[in-house]
Structures are given as structure tokens and as C-alpha cells.
């Protein structure tokens, strides 16, 4: 197996050292440390969110249907959306895992293979729209018990 294949098999590897370190640090903080800003995934979160909601006004990000990402019709919309991040998001078209239902953890049944651009677009939107709050609230209440 080549280095590149091994890296694509590793979800954290797909985030890169800097992204994985930032994510690990962010997840180690208590949920109340985030306030309403929650978690910043990239330096471009605001731009990604604006472009995402301009393109996908009615997409239900709380519970994605695989067809929202993979149907032939949606691929025609996602392709130009993702391509606008070439040179702006490192490895924008590399594969990573994305949760379908944001209220559930990463499991085989609750993940889909998506591009990094799709991952950032959906997760930034989930953060900004408060959809990920339930995960961090449940994690912080477990740690307080």
C-alpha cells in the first residue's frame, strides 16, 4: 500500500497534522468555552458558509440523505461548488468521512465518504446553525457525571 493510500484511509490524516491538532485541542475544551461561536474549522468558515447557503438554500444539514451528496443531479451542483475551493482549501477534493445525522457519532451506518470541501461546507453550516450543539452538550454532561 502506498503512502498516499494509507493517508486516505486515515480520517485524521485527511485533516493534516495542523487540522488534527486543532481539532483535538478544540474537542478537549468544555462545550461552554465556545459560546455561540462554537468551533472554527478553517480560516474561511464565514465565506464557506455564505457560498454553501447561496448554493444549497434548503439542504437539510441536520440529517443528510446520501442522495444529497451522491445522486447524479446533486453531483452536478456539488462539483462546481467544490471546485471553487481549489487552491483555497488544501486537498479540497480528497475524501473524508462525514456524519449523515449530526446528532449521532461516527459509526459505519452514520457516515458517508465525501470530499473535504463538502465536509467543511456541511460541518461549518452545522456549527453556525447550532446543529452540533447537541453532541457537545451530551459529551460535556457525560464528563460532569
TrEMBL record:
GO terms for cellular component: cytoplasm. InterPro entries: PBDC1-like_dom_sf (IPR023139), PBDC1_metazoa/fungi (IPR008476), Polysacc_synth_dom (IPR021148). Residues 37-135 form the Polysaccharide biosynthesis domain. Coiled coil: none annotated. Transmembrane segments: none annotated. This is Polysaccharide biosynthesis domain-containing protein. It comes from Dissostichus mawsoni (Antarctic cod). The lineage of its organism: Eukaryota, Metazoa, Chordata, Craniata, Vertebrata.
